[in-house]
Amino acid sequence: MPTLASGVKAAASGPPGKTRLMPPFWASGAQRSCPCSGGSCGSPSPPVRQDATGSTPGGRQHGGRHARFPGGDRRGWRGAERSSAGPAAAGRGGKAAAVTIMRAPPGLVRLLAARGWGRAARRCLGAMSRYVTEQRGQPNSADYRLYFKNADGKYISPFHDIPLFAGSKEDKEIPAKRSRTTGSEVVFNMIVEVPRWTNAKMEIATEEPLNPIKQDVKKGKLRYVANIFPHKGYIWNYGALPQTWEDPNHTDNNTGCCGDNDPIDVCEIGSKIHSSGEIVQVKVLGVLALVDEGETDWKIIAISVDDPDAHKIHDIDDVRKHKPGYLEATVDWFRAYKVPDGKPQNHFAFNGEFKNKDFAVEIIKSTHEYWKALLHKKADGGNVKCTNVLVRDSPFCCSEEDARSIVQSAPVHVNGDSVSPEVDAWYFFSK
Question: How many other C-beta atoms are found inside a 10 Å radius of the C-beta of residue 184?
Fold first, then answer.
């Protein structure tokens, strides 16, 4: 088995500006942790055994922008795709990494820590390590689906089975009995649908059982948001808060419009690009009241609790101070993003002004109450599917076997085609 010294010598082989560290457990067949820059893959991963579809045994590919390490492993510096490691793997891999580092000389320990090694054991306790995703169908096609599993290997609905409040137990009655806080702030779970700078309009399929993530289709064509100068795709990590629902039968007192029949949307403004299907713990900073084609469509502004700037951004005014221009760009984006499709500009309640954190939290709480009514047949969701596995007192709760059958009935995962170059076109118009 290679020594620590041999692992350090490999440092010079990385790409320019990156130091690649390969501790001994990388060179062996033992449990390994992904060395993506800053630990971006979030949790340790087992040795990869890909099948013919390119998927790992538990679900997602680990490919994306990953570099190729010796021995054929696809690992990398940023890593757009997630590991499918579960908690058992995290326990073994995290411990192996920690033991290896503890035996290293103090100077090497500091060097390894600076590159992210040794943080895997802590990260395995985060939200992402509790959930994995499984691809079905063909990427960049109408049949592509991204299903979710929890730490127990159960297929679940991200809409209904992932708690709204970070730190809540999945299988407790609703509302959640406890929530994680950082200081005086409540931390929420966010489901990432669209990574920043991408164009595919990925969304939770509210009208399908178990609510996988899919790409929206309109008039038979896959939907992509346009690049309106100077923006490229979505300008934040975009997603939704689970266990929330904007009731289409309720007229909002602030906007004078009914809800849009979807979970409440989130714009995560941190520095890291997150993957579709990732569960990120966020703190809420404020909210924008978009009125989209006559429907209330709240846009929560939030930041990952693990972001380097999270300790100094606590409310909407802090965003203006530390990320100048971001809020103005957000308003411009939502106002114009449908114009290239021939639609008029959107408008906003409150003259496009952002409301603060406290206001946003109250909006979230109200949509959580509407969701509870939906899950207990006290509200009409129309075509919204409420199939869940973990909300025990909901009449829509199904068995693990039924959930597994839903996923297995979807097309098997195959490689996808490339995206049309038209998606990269830039649009200009007078504001």
Answer: 6
